[in-house]
Structure formats: structure tokens, C-alpha cells
Amino acid sequence: MKIISNPTHNEIKLAAKALKDGHLVAFPTETVYGLGADAINEKAVSRIYSVKGRPTDHPLIVHISSIKQLDKWVIDIPEYAIKLASEFWPGPMTLILKRSSLAKDFITGGQENVGVRVPAHPMALALLNKFHKVGGFGIAAPSANRFGAVSPTSAAAVDEELGKYLGPKDLILDGDRCQVGIESTIIDCTKLVPKVLRPGGITLEMIQKVTSLKLIFKNDKNDVKTSGLLDSHYSPKAKVVIGIVTEPGDGLIALKKCPTPPNVVRLASPANVTEYAMILYESLRMGDQKALKRIVVIPPDGDGIAIAIRDRLLKAAFG
Ligand code: TXA
Ligand code: MG
User: Fold this and answer.
1) Which of 185, 217, 249 is the last residue of a domain?
2) 143 alpha carbon to ligand 2 midpoint, in Å?
3) pLDDT, tens digit, for every residue of 246-268?
4) Strand 93-99 to 74-75 pairing
5) Per residue in 47-83, pLDDT tens?
6) What's the CA-to-centroid distance between 5 and ligand 1, angstroms?
7) What is the extent of the structural domain holding 279?
8) Max CA-CA distance within the chain?
9) Which CATH number belongs to the domain containing residue 195 in this structure?
10) Measured between alpha carbons, how far is 101 from 45 in angstroms, rounded to an integer?
């Protein structure tokens, strides 16, 4: 495996060719790093599952370069989904739609629908554009972490997670730290109204405003329970505790306005919720690097991306 920092146009072209030849390419998106494979190559896609250690009935998101590629992968797109795609792509949003014949069972986990996303990171878009040029249809990419672990938001974190499982011809493209920092909002668009399966950077308010529809979202105080979206996820080795009570030696992640108690290791002090999302995963990772036993997190209040942060914290703390 090779890590390519600041890849040139030619190196991105070679990465696209590597994908087409069936190798894996981890690449940055604005949310988290993805572990990419040619979405129509069953053998390549099966390697995603073995490298991640992920059960094979968990569906994968197909990444495409623009809304123009959408009807290769899906059929029967409802009007509200077109509105969402036109408004928020490229961006941190995945739409679940009825699959076309291109989306095989090895992508969808045997379901009749498929998740599709146009990422906004320039390096992801450049890779997708080159991939389409060499005849590719889409890049299947889950977050580039071992199953159940914290998603990586830097190339170094991808290497730490998957480096030893990748093959000699696989690549990691380094595109700096991810700006959103948590995974995309997933919206099921197979029914009359949109249903948010995973909250993220595209917020409930934004979706409601664009579609003018009353969307479905389970109160974020309960866990979102949908096929493939597990209770326990995003977990570092340290025990994650939600609350305000710390013990000496604990790590602490909280907004800047919260003070650090004595003998507590402050892992992050984000100034606002946007920054909180951006630093969350790298801060959990830092807790593990410091071999902390417990990380206490004080979740942010309010709506918007704070809902997504609380969703991830609940899952990290589960069990
Ligand atoms: O931000 C993101 O979405 C990142 C970047 C790399 O794009 N990708 C990502 O993929 O988070 P992954 O596989 O780690 O998480 C996607 C989740 C999984 O829990 C999967 O089961 C669910 O979305 N999912 C994917 N396709 C689905 C489908 N057709 N129906 C229901 N759930 C689906
Ligand atoms: Mg994931």
C-alpha cells in the first residue's frame, strides 16, 4: 500500500486506473475518508468487506461525480429527491433510492434500494471524474475504518485503521483532514416522504425547507434503528461516557465554554458545534493514542448538526 500526499493530476489518474483494475483506493471526502472500490466489480467490493472486517449484508454507498450519473444507478426518483440532490450535491448527503440493474446484490446487501452520494471534497470529485473517464460507473465506499471503530478523518488515521490489511497495489490518497468530520446524512427516498436514517451535516431543517415535506426522523434521544445502522458503532478503545462527571485521568471532549476539571486530559475544546463535529473523531482517536481508559464527552445542545453529534456519541457510548 502506498500513501500519496498532495497527488498530482497524473497520480489521481493512476489511482482511478488502480480502481478500474480492481484495487482499493482510500480517499478523502468532506465527511470522513472512504475505502473505495469499483462498484461493479464484485471481487474488488468483496475486498472492502474483508479489509474492514464488515458483515457482507451491510450495504455500501455508491459515490458518483454528479447528479447526471444518478439514473445509471437508480430508478423511480421522486420529485423531492431531485430537489434534495440539486440543492445539496456535491455535499454530505446520501440518498437511498430504488436500484437500477447496475446496483447488484453485492452492493445493496440484497436490498432493492441503493445509497448514492456526490461528495464535495475536490480530491474525491477529481478521482470520480477520472474514474468515469476510464469507463467506471461509481465508487463504492464505506468509511475507511475497521468495522465498529471510529471513522477516519485523516490519511494517517486510515493507515492506522487499515494499513496492515491493504494490499501492495492499494492506495491511500491524502487530502488533509475532513472538514465536516462526521458521516453524511442518509435519507431514505423510497417512500412518499423523506426519512432520515442517519443525521449528519445536511440537517433536518435544511431537508424540510427544500422539500416542504414533513420528514420522518426518530427522536434523537432514541437510537436510530435501521438495517445496517447499529446501536454500537464509532467506538474507540477507551470507554466513552456521556455526562459531566469526570474522574482523575479521564479524557474530556466538550465545548470551549466548559472548564477542565483538575487532573483531566482535555482532548478538545471546540468553539462551536461545527468545529465539534470536525474534531470529534480525531479527539476520540487521540484518547486512544494516550491510552486513556475513559473519555467523558459533554454533548452539545440544540438542533442542526448537534443532533448528528449526539447520535454518534450515543453510539460510541453504547454498551
Ligand atoms: O459520509 C459518508 O457517508 C461516508 C463517506 C465515505 O461517503 N461513508 C459512510 O459509509 O459512512 P458507511 O458504509 O461507513 O456507512 C453507511 C451506512 C451503513 O450503516 C450502511 O448500512 C447504510 O449506510 N446504508 C448504505 N446503503 C444503504 C441502503 N441501501 N439502505 C439502508 N442503509 C444503507
Ligand atoms: Mg462507517
Assistant:
1) 217
2) 4
3) 999 999 999 999 999 999 999 99
4) antiparallel
5) 999 999 999 889 999 999 999 999 999 999 999 999 9
6) 26
7) 239-317
8) 59
9) 3.90.870.10
10) 17
